Amino acid sequence: MTRLIHIADLHFGAEDPELVAGFERACAALAPELIIAAGDFTQAARWRELRAADAMFARIDRPVVGRPGNHDVPVYSPLERALRPWRRYDRTLGRIIRPDWSSDAVQVSTLHTARRAQWRPDWSLGRAARRDVDQALSCFKQAGSRARVLACHHPLIAPDPSDPRAATRNGPETAKRLSAACDLVLTGHLHETFVLPSPDTKQTCWFIGTGTTFSRRTRQESASFNLIEIEEDGFRLTRQESDEAGRFGAGRIWELERGKR
Ligand SMILES: [Fe+2]
Ligand SMILES: [Fe+2]
Q1: 154 C-alpha to ligand 1 centroid (Å)
Q2: What domain range is 154 assigned to?
Q3: Ligand 2 center to residue 42 CA distance, Å?
Q4: Which residue, 173, 193, 200, 215, has most beta carbons within 10 Å?
Q5: What separation in Å is there between the alpha carbon of 189 and the centre of ligand 1?
Q6: Centre of ligand 1 from the C-alpha of residue 104, in Å
Q7: How far, in Å, from the CA of 224 to the mean position of ligand 1?
Q8: DSSP character for 141?
Q9: Is 160:201 a contact under the CB 8 Å cutoff?
Q10: Alpha-carbon span 40 to 102, nearest angstrom
Q11: Ligand positioned closest to the Cα atom of 152
Q12: 168 alpha carbon, closest ligand
């Protein structure tokens, strides 16, 4: 059995220190093989926020796979945002967070969906470029019978399709493509836990969102992360929920079927 932790929307700069300490204790107790971090590590890609995230991952000392989110591009430096949007991320978190990872049981790949700018007013929304999807999926050609897990920051499908935050460009088409090539698609951005089946009913692929891990300012649900256990015939997802003291503990559990191939 392989254990993964799925986190997103850490938002260092607005983090609650009790939740950070609680997460570090939970990580030590759960001992996951890998942490999958689906972006928004910071509030505004300030150097001090990136360094705080860096220091936390150093303390946890586990392999981390992920991609930056829309908050990880400099918000208050328009020139840098335009010319070298990912320089700060690359020089800090990018040195320890890898874009892919594999073991005997699982192959993990990631897709970049955050943009420095777009031809629409809300630049926080995501875009899945076909070339990036091709590249992300190329990892799975050698996956064999291993579980195939893809992570990206923005949701490709969402519990409420009319939610304006879920308007990821090429989202529904990309979700169909991923359904044929992945077992799990892990995302962030909505600050909401959800589990949705593939929009293609012939495929068994699960689209999974996680809550924010370090913020108490979430409106609908407490700070949380997902524990994912990979077994021969399926996946067990346990939402790890925080209490008043910043301690994380097991909440709702989903048992998810794994597609035959
Ligand atoms: Fe976020
Ligand atoms: Fe986001």
Answers
A1: 9
A2: 2-257
A3: 10
A4: 193
A5: 4
A6: 32
A7: 13
A8: G
A9: no
A10: 23
A11: 2
A12: 2
For residue 178, the model assigns a pLDDT of 95
- 170 CA distance to ligand 2 middle (Å): 17
Segment 26-64, tens digit of pLDDT: 999 999 999 999 999 999 999 999 999 999 999 999 999
The predicted model scores a pTM of: 0.96
Note the helical H segments in the chain.
17-30, 47-60, 78-83, 87-91, 130-138, 171-181
Residues in the chain: 261
Question: Mean pLDDT per segment of 10 residues, for the chain of length 261 residues?
Answer: 97 96 98 98 97 98 97 92 94 97 97 88 90 95 94 96 91 94 97 94 93 82 96 95 95 93 65
Q: Distance between CA 210 and CA 9 in Å, rounded?
A: 9
Rounded to whole angstroms, what are the CA distances from 5 to 65, 122, 210, 226? 10, 30, 10, 6
Q: Decide: residue 87, CB within 10 A, 0-12 exposed, 13-18 middle, 19+ buried.
A: middle
Rounded distance between C-alpha atoms, residue 75 and residue 103, angstroms: 36
CATH code of the domain covering residue 39: 3.60.21.10
The structure tokens listed for 172 are 């529904």
Structural domain count, the chain: 1
Q: In this predicted structure, what is the pLDDT of residue 64? A: 98
List, as one string, the DSSP characters of 62-130.
S-EEE---GGGS-SS-HHHHHH-TTHHHHHTGGGTEES-EE-SSEEEEEE----S--SSS-TTS-B--H
Q: Which ligand is nearest to the CA of 41?
A: 1
